[in-house]
Write a structure and sequence with these properties.
alpha/beta, four-stranded antiparallel beta sheet, binds adenosine-5'-triphosphate
Length: 241
């Protein structure tokens, strides 16, 4: 109670069969901030995000959205409350055009036609390449364009807290920079709160306010992004570079 965090995790324990994969995770994400969730392959990042989305049920601990315990809140109701995970780029509807994909995303807001038009155009302003490809079908897009479309479709529903699981995977550095710049801009301009799980540590920390490093399901570092990026011992021990 009384917490200022948009998203808070308290003593989270999650596992599959056997020993827990996430064991007592505690973290807070302040409103309008970007937090990078870092850690080697298998550290538990995906497990954390799936638990926050409501796809996995924790064995212990709590997830709070604006101070509200989400234990009894189903996946779709978490989305309705503004806790949204960006799906992988290959999830875009490949038969539909970019424009149609965005219109579908805007339907969520059940606003009038004009408001939806404005919302879609706002996405074209944020993602130049999508504006040029508006009449192209999903299957004609590059991997980077699909990832942009997936992010745009999530943003158009006006989430309060956005969860991303390795959005940089397989993308060219220039595209990663473009995607991450949009996340930073939305956080600054609209107060969007972002939890970004990444193995691309340098890129993630370059736009993040804070970084949280997971190893074997526990937090081994939680610090300002610049401090983390500048800590060679930490990088060497947990981040593999
Ligand atoms: P990656 O970047 O490879 O996805 P990660 O940090 O996201 O790594 P998780 O995917 O959360 O890590 O996996 C953490 C641990 O949980 C790993 O040891 C993994 O083998 C195990 N694990 C993940 N999913 C399952 C599952 N469905 N059933 C059993 N074990 C799983």
């Amino acid at each position: 109670a009384g917490t200022a965090a948009a998203l808070a995790v308290e003593g989270l324990v999650v596992g599959y069969a056997g020993a827990p994969v996430v064991d007592g995770l505690t973290l807070e994400v302040a409103p309008g901030s970007v937090v990078a969730l870092l850690g080697a392959n298998g550290a538990g990042k995906t497990t954390v995000l799936r638990t926050l989305s409501g796809l996995l049920t924790p064995r212990g601990g709590r997830v709070l959205l604006d101070g509200d315990d989400l234990a009894a809140v189903r996946v779709e109701d978490r989305v309705r409350r503004g806790l949204v995970q960006v799906p992988e780029g290959r999830s875009v509807v490949t038969e539909l055009t970019v424009e149609e994909n965005l219109q579908l995303g805007a339907l969520w807001r059940s606003a009038g036609r004009a408001a939806r038009r404005t919302a879609v155009d706002e996405m074209y302003d944020l993602f130049e390449p999508l504006a040029r490809r508006r009449a192209s079908a999903g299957h004609q897009l590059s991997g980077g364009e699909r990832q942009m479309l997936a992010l745009a479709r999530a943003l158009i529903s006006r989430p309060r807290v956005l969860l991303l699981d390795e959005p940089s995977l397989g993308l060219a550095p220039r595209v990663v920079a473009q995607l991450f710049a949009v996340l930073r801009e939305r956080a600054d301009a609209t107060g969007l709160t972002v939890l970004l799980a990444e193995q691309n540590v340098t890129s993630a920390l370059s736009i993040a306010d804070r970084g949280v490093v997971l190893a074997l399901g526990e937090v081994v570092a939680d610090a300002g992004a610049a401090d983390l990026a500048a800590d060679p011992a930490l990088r060497h021990a947990y981040l593999g570079f």
